[in-house]
Design a protein that fits this description.
Blueprint: E1 2-5, H1 13-17, E2 38-41, H2 43-59, H3 61-67, H4 73-86, E3 91-92, E4 96-99, E5 107-117, E6 123-132, H5 140-146, E7 150-153, E8 158-163, H6 166-180, H7 186-201
Antiparallel strand pairs: 1-2, 3-4, 4-5, 5-6, 6-8, 7-8
Length: 246
């Protein structure tokens, strides 16, 4: 194990961890440790992760070459590891890949568009994973403050996280549930997130990185809200009322 100064990345941890040079970065905002903080990295663990990714890429090479021409290379790596875990996607488009119910997830979307995200360290969000989860209305603002890549959909009753590694999405969702259900404050959740990612780099996998600790409801948990007036273009059966007259 060796100590490095490097820019952490939420999911592109492997290539960064294998860098032999120390990478300097500007200091963060006042009161924060900043992106140049010294971090412990387990090189053996990172090399193992890199090897698994390379094996997944090789196994899915024909599929990736056929369906993901022109996509960012890192996103192809995420696709390969997701295919290794859940099989090929059910939907393939020019801008996204989509899986239906897969393992603990309601659905999975891999986006071609990379969204830059600096929390808790610079990385690009591409992998979005969803569960059924009802977030109290009064907690929406807190979730937005906790992590801008965690999205709660009130009407659908769905909670998602978008990062570039499934482990980070497990972490994000687990902490979002803690915030939504009052077990952690926003600051506590953000501190826990950063600490867990640092631990992963050092080869220490926090339980929140290893799977969902919150139950993804099988039944719908959405909030339809309240109608102000009837929709004259919709049959009553669709609105939950009596069948419309023929």
């Amino acid at each position: 194990m060796k100590r490095f100064k490097l820019l952490l990345t939420c999911g592109a941890l492997v290539s960064s961890a294998l860098t032999s040079a120390a990478i300097a970065a500007p200091q963060g905002k006042a009161g924060q440790s900043g992106a140049g903080a010294e971090v412990e990295v387990d090189q053996a663990k990172m090399k193992e992760m890199k090897m698994k990714t390379q094996q997944a890429m090789q196994k899915s090479k024909a599929w990736l070459d056929k369906n993901m021409q022109g996509w960012p290379e890192k996103t192809k790596e995420v696709a390969a590891t997701t295919i290794a875990a859940y099989g090929p996607p059910q939907a393939v488009g020019p801008e996204l890949l989509a899986w239906g119910k897969s393992g603990p997830w309601k659905r999975i979307i891999l986006h071609r568009e990379e969204v830059m995200h600096d929390f808790p360290m610079p990385h690009k969000d591409v992998l979005q994973q969803f569960i059924n989860f009802k977030v109290p209305v009064e907690k929406f603002d807190e979730l937005a403050k906790y992590d801008g890549s965690v999205v709660a959909e009130r009407t659908a009753g769905v909670l998602s996280a978008r990062c570039d590694k499934e482990e980070a999405n497990f972490l994000a969702i687990n902490l979002a549930a803690d915030v939504a259900e009052g077990r952690k404050s926003v600051d506590e959740a953000r501190d826990y997130y950063a600490k867990a990612i640092k631990g992963m780099l050092a080869g220490k996998m926090d339980p929140y990185l290893q799977g969902l600790k919150v139950e993804s409801k099988t039944a719908e948990v959405g909030d339809k809200d309240e109608a102000r007036f009837a929709n004259p273009m919709m049959p009553k059966t669709a609105m939950g009322g009596k069948p419309a007259n023929p």
